[in-house]
Structure to design on (290 residues):
């Protein structure tokens, strides 16, 4: 299948579509924002491509010269398994950027930090100079992101959509439930799991949510607590450095912190908990298989 040309007459364009299953748009003439449009000076392109039987993400990304990480980021809601694409679904690929759907309560500052770009770059790319607000479900173009959390979340979930992804990959050294505390030697109930990793290993959000707490918390040491939808909370403890702040909206797969050994810890590791409506749950029952 040949790639469609950019400036075809409308009648010929539809003929090419019927043959190729793909369409190329100039972002400057086809705005994606629900409430605003792109700056007239921007030269982004959005490619719509219908998945064909046997295609892979790598093949599609190579064909249209779009990094696979950005392809995944722009199409996260459509993808269930990165290894098995569903023929007939239409993917959108962005040249020089990704598409982001705004979550309830999310701010431009939150979004800018998620992708490692400036607020000004997002404003310019979407023509938001005269806007005071952004709205849930509005779609924004993020120009040239330096990080793509959606890709990292899929990577930590084994390439499949999951309720929670792993916050990092490490050696499971202590499970959920009754145990003898490694520091005090007393019998206690371990409300999470411990993952042994070298100090300074990057820790990622297991699910999208808002930072409820970031700071020192007794025996937990330097910690982050995220509040998620459906009554869930996650806890990340014994950290050495934190990159987020209370109230910040975090995407799943976004970097939160570096692992450490602060608080009551016998060595560098991540202590990770999942709670729902005030009850501690076994993370291994909710995380993808190791």
């Amino acid at each position: 299948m040949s790639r469609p040309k950019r400036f075809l007459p409308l009648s010929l364009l539809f003929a090419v579509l019927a043959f190729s299953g793909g369409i190329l748009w100039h972002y400057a003439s086809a705005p994606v924002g629900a409430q605003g449009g792109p700056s007239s000076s921007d030269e982004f392109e959005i490619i719509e491509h219908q998945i064909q039987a046997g295609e892979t993400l790598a093949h599609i990304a190579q064909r249209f010269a779009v990094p696979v990480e950005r392809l995944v980021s722009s199409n996260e809601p459509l993808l269930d398994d990165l290894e098995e694409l569903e023929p007939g679904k239409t993917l959108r690929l962005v040249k020089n950027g990704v598409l982001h759907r705004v979550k309830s309560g999310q701010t431009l500052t939150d979004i800018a930090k998620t992708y490692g770009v400036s607020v000004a770059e997002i404003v310019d790319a979407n023509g938001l100079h005269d806007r005071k607000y952004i709205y849930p479900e509005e779609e924004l173009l993020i120009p040239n992101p330096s990080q793509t959390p959606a890709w990292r979340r899929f990577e930590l979930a084994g390439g499949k959509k999951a309720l929670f992804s792993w916050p990092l990959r490490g050696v499971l050294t202590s499970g959920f439930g009754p145990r003898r505390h490694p520091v005090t030697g007393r019998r206690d109930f371990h409300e999470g799991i411990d993952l042994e990793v070298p100090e300074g290993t990057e820790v990622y959000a297991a699910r999208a949510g808002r930072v409820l707490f970031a700071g020192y918390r007794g025996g937990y040491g330097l910690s982050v607590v995220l509040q998620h939808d459906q009554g869930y909370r996650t806890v990340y403890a014994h950290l050495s450095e934190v990159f987020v702040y209370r109230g910040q909206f975090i995407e799943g797969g976004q970097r939160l912190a570096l692992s450490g050994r602060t608080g009551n810890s016998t060595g560098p590791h991540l202590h990770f908990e999942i709670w729902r409506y005030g009850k501690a749950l076994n993370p291994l029952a909710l995380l993808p298989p190791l």
Residues 171-285 form a domain with the Glucose Permease (Domain IIA) fold (CATH 2.70.70.10). The two ends are 39 Å apart (CA to CA). The longest helix spans residues 10-20.
